[in-house]
Amino acid sequence: MAKQGYHHGNLREALVLGCLRLIEDKGPTGFSLSEAAREAGVTPAAVYRHFEGREDLIAEAALQGYEIFADLMEHAYDAGKPSPLAAFEATGRAYLAFASRFPGHYVAMFESGISIQRTPDLHRAATRALGVMEKAATELAQQIPPEKRPPPQMFSAHIWAMSHGVVELFARGSPGTKSPFPPEDLLETGIGIYLRGLGLIAPDR
Amino acid sequence: MAKQGYHHGNLREALVLGCLRLIEDKGPTGFSLSEAAREAGVTPAAVYRHFEGREDLIAEAALQGYEIFADLMEHAYDAGKPSPLAAFEATGRAYLAFASRFPGHYVAMFESGISIQRTPDLHRAATRALGVMEKAATELAQQIPPEKRPPPQMFSAHIWAMSHGVVELFARGSPGTKSPFPPEDLLETGIGIYLRGLGLIAPDR
DNA sequence: TGTACATCAGTGAACGCGCGTTCACTGATGTAC
DNA sequence: TGTACATCAGTGAACGCGCGTTCACTGATGTAC
Fold first, then answer.
1. Which of A179, A187, A198 is the closest to B193 by Cβ?
2. Domain B57-197, what fold?
3. Best interface-test mutation with B: which of A24, A156, A164, A177 has the largest number of B CBs within 10 A?
4. Which of A101, A114, A169, B136 has the fewest C-beta atoms under 10 angstroms from its C-beta?
């Protein structure tokens, strides 16, 4: 991402990209504004033409992440729509797909400590994304007899927790945790067993 | 943790405690050796009498964590022993209990980037702890007919992932993620549903 | 079409800061006789 | 019991470093006439 002359042309986006790359393999606190500037071939001071500071840059990365994430989730949900079960499973897969295709965004969103209340934009994007998960769970819950139906937020939380756990422990290069199985399989089977436990899949395989 | 005279008396442990407190609410990379020293009422240079450096201090915190963790897991396992199911469930609960009672250790172990290969001691302690989870899973797997029995490491991984996810997303003050349920309940019900899915609990509640 | 000028997007030097680490040192403690 | 001395566990000053941020500046671009 070398600039040609005095003006960069698209510095703002270049900085976000650099931020994502750095955050991805150094963690959110290992990331430095100066290094992002260096990568873009620009003085640290130039960053302040486009962002209020370090935090603001990370927040922008997180925002873009939530937007992509929400789009993916909505798309997955729609694709499985006629069947609540298919829709639900699709969002689960979309979660993992997002985490592995956009690791920098993932970290910016869930590990950087950026509050989703930071700006209205950020809050809106995050709500939209997480809303899809809850909607899928709510619809699926309709298929369980009311008297033994767990609150939809609860099993949306279960699925989220398992997905996040798989990502953190087995998808990223966690310390010494060599994954015995591909993370996709792990999540797929885990969710399968869970749904069977809810009586939503035939008890036999 | 004020020292009385020129000699502190128990600086090594005081530093580990400070490290744990700091790591707990600033994250592993937000932690600084100088600050830990300051908390112990001591010059940064004094740290080098007891540790090789910053990394070494964190590694010690992680080591102590793994020892406590392994003890807890073994104890929980033994308490439920006659029944593989009870033993398995107990280790799940022990995991969450550990994370909430020893958050600093938890972070040092699972989020600090310290490799468990760092020293033989560390590796041994970690292996012991994680071994209990696998042992519990293996025994439980015996109760499933062989032809539809998933590999024990797989469902030990599932449970670990869900536990870790619950801890990260709902037990710690994650950004804007207000937990709709107490994490203990979330994990308890989640594991319950999962085990029902494996046919290890009666299908009805 | 050319020129004057406003605006924009960078520079580069400087700042104060806290960090991890090193070093020669010194005060306190423990031990041998 | 007293003294000499070795060992231990701290000090404090210094180092070089990279950081985030500020500031007056300047080069490039766009626009009005």
1. A198
2. Tetracycline Repressor; domain 2 (1.10.357)
3. A164
4. A101
